[in-house]
Amino acid sequence: MACKVVLEIIFALLHFMNHLRTQLTRQGMKLIDIGANLTDPVFRGLYRGKQSHPDDMQQILDRARAAGVVAMMVTGGNLHESKEAIALAREFPGLYATVGCHPTRTSEVDKHSAGADAYFAELQDLAEKNRDKVVAIGECGLDYDRLHFSDKEPQHKYFARQFALAEATKLPMFLHNRNTGGDFAKMIKENRHRFSTGVVHSYTGPIDEAKELLEMGLYIGLNGCSLKTEENLEVAKQIPVDRLMIETDCPYCEIRPTHASHKLLKPENSDGWKAPEAKKKERWTPECMVKSRNEPCMIRQVLQVLASLHGISEQDLADQVFENTRKVFFPDQDI
């Protein structure tokens, strides 16, 4: 009996020491999710207007913290969402906001009750009055994959207006570029003198275009959608780590079994972190993720894949992308 008790104590001590070692390792793993669409109602348990489970925002943020995510940039997709992003950033520590109008939302600008000038004046006012929480102008850019939401003309017109916002506020830019045949890079080149720097997030384009953007002093943001195909992986390999940022773009862009990057995932990360269990929303429990609803904690899978592609440790890559992100978006923040 005494021997059994001693063994139980030894096993308990070993478990505690392993847990402590893991926690100490994680304290060194500091990550920033540069693209988290946390204003999406699914993060409040609301799917297509129906409340499927309780609001679990706090549990989502707790899982992110446990994964080493120390800050998240909540994306402002239009004027209304920019206000929501700032409100979230004030409600929850570690959240910050972007302010802008996504290319697929630019068709709504002319419908603003007081007109386009008032729309952008409100965006500028939001940025200037919330400088402790607003870290970028955007999400803005061009998107030719979804012209059914907004045609090229308003996209170009109101992308240009957001260079003016960056110029006025001196904030970096959070940029969107999807299948634009060089038009995005052309507009960046024409307006590059108007803003300090920025990141082209969720990059899925070819390496030649990436190099052109890098030559203009921009950073490249990668997530699960950036790692779908073998071609994507080849591009990701060639992005210098000192110009790289990482993101989830949650609740979208998870790494799926059909993606080329999935084969590079291991059951756990180098510090012992494992992806939490996921259940269908109908079987929701507070400790589990919801299937097909990406979360900030899953940035650890993006980190794991990119570390493998670049042939460096997860810790070294985490340190580098943290410094890249801090330098661009958080130069005056203690995070």
Topology of helices and strands:
Elements (H helix, E strand, L loop, with lengths): L1 H27 L2 E6 L9 E2 L2 E2 L5 H10 L2 E6 L4 H13 L3 E5 L16 H14 L4 E10 L8 H18 L3 E6 L4 H9 L6 E3 L6 H9 L3 E4 L7 H9 L5 E3 L31 E2 L9 E2 L8 H12 L3 H16 L6
Parallel strand pairs: 1-4, 4-5, 5-6, 6-7, 7-8, 8-9, 9-10, 11-12
Antiparallel strand pairs: 2-3
Helix pairs in contact: 4-5, 9-10
Q: How many distinct helices?
A: 10
**Largest sheet composition:** 8 strands, parallel
Give the overall average pLDDT.
93
CATH class: Alpha Beta
The CATH architecture designation is: Alpha-Beta Barrel
Rg:
21 Å
Query: Spans with pLDDT under 50 lasting ≥5 residues?
Result: 3-26
- For CATH, the homologous superfamily is named as Metal-dependent hydrolases
Cα shape: globular
Report the portion of residues in β strands.
15-25%
Sheet/helix structural class: alpha/beta
CATH topology: TIM Barrel
Strand order of the largest sheet: 1-4-5-6-7-8-9-10
Number of strands: 12
Spatial gap, N to C terminus: 51 Å
List the domain count as a whole number.
1
- Taken in chain order, the helices and strands follow as HEEEHEHEHEHEHEHEHEEEHH
Helix content estimate: 40-55%
